[in-house]
Amino acid sequence: MPSAPWIAGETIQVGNYRHALFRGLENVFFQHRAGMLSERAWQGYANVIRAQLEGSAEMETWWRENDVIYDPEFREAVAALAGQAPAQQ
């Protein structure tokens, strides 16, 4: 939960943003795995994942609480990028 004194609607908006961000990144991850996205392009997205998780304790907490809704392969990739062990299902 965010530490800022947000109202309930703002908290929902932030949660929805985070979900949309990581769902989009998951899609990009699978496009890369399927050969539809170059390694160079993927590295740009990988940098976004690192920056999101390393730049915000709130985002890292959100990810740890919600990663189970994403594909296990994507969770493993995110964990490796963030230097974490993936959560168990």
Short summary:
By secondary structure, this protein is mainly α. Helix content is 71%, strand content 0%.
Keywords:
89 residues; mainly alpha; 0% strand; elongated
Task: Give a written overview of the molecule.
With 89 residues, the protein is mostly helical. The protein has one domain (8-82). It contains four helices and no strands. It has helices at residues 8-33, 39-54, 57-66, 72-82. Helix 1 (8-33) packs antiparallel against helix 2. The longest helix is centred in the N-terminal third of the chain and has 26 residues, at 8-33. The model has no long low-confidence stretch (mean pLDDT 88).
Task: Outline the fold blueprint.
Elements (H helix, E strand, L loop, with lengths): L7 H26 L5 H16 L2 H10 L5 H11 L7
Number of domains: 1
Q: What class, by secondary structure content?
A: mainly alpha
The largest sheet is: none
Rounded mean pLDDT score: 88
Question: What's the Cα radius of gyration?
Answer: 13 Å
